Amino acid sequence: MRPITCNIKEMSIDNLISQAVAKALKELYGLDVEPSAIVPETTKKEFEGNLTVVVFPWVKAARKRPEDVGNEIGSWLVENEPAVDRFNVIKGFLNIVIEPTFWNSVLKHIADTPDYGITPAGEDAPLVMVEYSSPNTNKPLHLGHVRNNLLGYSLSRILEACGNRVVKTNIVNDRGIHICKSMLAWQKWGDGATPETTGQKGDHLIGDYYVLFDKHFKAEVEELMKQGMTKEEAEKASPLMQEARAMLVKWEQKDPEIRALWEKMNGWVYAGFDETYKRMGVSFDKIYYESDTYLEGKEKVLEGLEKGIMYRKDDGSVWADLTADGLDHKLLLRSDGTSVYMTQDIGTAKLRFADYPIDKMIYVVGNEQNYHFQVLSLLLDKLGFKWGKDLVHFSYGMVELPNGKMKSREGTVVDADDLMKEMVDTAREVSAELGKLDGLTPAEAEDIAEIVGLGALKYFLLKVDPTKNITFDPKETIDFNGNTGPFIQYTYARIRSVLRRAAEAGIELTDYLGVKPNEKEVALIQTLADFPSVVEQAGRRYSPALIANYVYELTKQYNQFYHDYSILKEEDAAVRSLRLTLCEVTARTIASGMALLGIRVPERM
Description:
By secondary structure, the chain is of the alpha/beta class. The protein is 54% helix and 10% strand.
């Protein structure tokens, strides 16, 4: 049989069918329907077919039963579109079977397109800014930060793959009473401790003093309550808290001694953060600091006050009336002139807008801040930021532990550094037990442990719909079977092994376009062909989970194909070439998909 070819570069199989159905509607019923409005879906497994078109939208205009419309369109396609082999109709659903050899042209196009599914950004592409991480400099990063960073970084990669220019940003919360608590505790009980003298990472060192402050503060409150004070009175009267507030006032007044201590301790924290970010595999193009943005925000709010966008109360505080927008009155400056978080976010927006011509701003922040971003969006729009009204709050669910929520000040968080170390240690142990490190040098084995351990962590946190809460259990993540990172990574390594053995045997690829692929080969090619649309959908819906679950499905399909059919021992050279090409393209697509999640894949395992 002569193979069917088409210009796949301009037309995917979905687009080809959409165009053909549009022509059929015009010829059969005189209907002008845009091909873009016709969206074929993958046929459900219980029915025969590759693609399904729903015909209900045209039944009324055709004045016929859904089954008749489906049969007439299907017959037209068989007669006029060479890619269509046959069809069947189930009520108003037209199931289309693509001519098997057509899929070979699809596979060849994918194989000939190194960056298949990835759209490069042009010079005039939209500029999207993604903010994520947002740590405080009074404690190290924890499990909640890990999910935030992984989501933000992956989303940035996906948006880039969709053809956008992307700027990855971080806003560091480096000022406020919580920072002063750590500083004061270090002054009182630190005895000059430094990261060098203690051997601790700077962020861990400072985090310990934040916890220590809380311990002493609680003891003071408890003692004052024994003397007859209410809890609220005791917290206000606490000498330790009063000292912290006095330190904050000095910081605001730019006291040289307090500022020098602040810069020194923050420097320790930043060095610690950098180590954590590097191991986690995330990065930023621009970092902003609240100590720079809060004054800018105050200036912008006062400008809004002059324009009548905000109003001042008798006590001197400044507010925004958002009742006309269905919200309430929002405080922007306290009566003493100090700023609130909202003011700081406005200041950060001002600096960012001055630095970059932003078309879309995305904030990766947990769902407990949903209301905050509703208000911020309205205020930025009123203050003249063109992207303010359309800002995106990428709202995601919390990460919980099997035994409940984490609390930083009580020292009950899952530390990000400890977590990554535990994941790598577990990966090393499990991989060794299963013999997956056999024959590797110690350096290679350690690299595999790092790749698998961190890949397991990342995949576990990214495969879930971002809006949902996650209960994190490390034991579930490192499994070489099921919907896990290691399962996908091991499959990739297996494919690379097949391709290496083919190269070592001197096997050369021949023309496979005339081969009639079997059912599992067709299914695998169709899934590979779906990669660009999955990337586009993940970008549109801001969902790395779509990529993760696509790669898992692709991996499952490959393993079924690998189990059922010989590759290297296949005697027919054309069939063998088809299968080796399938291996090459599947490995490349797995690597591309995992890279969008920030996950590495091992060449050997």
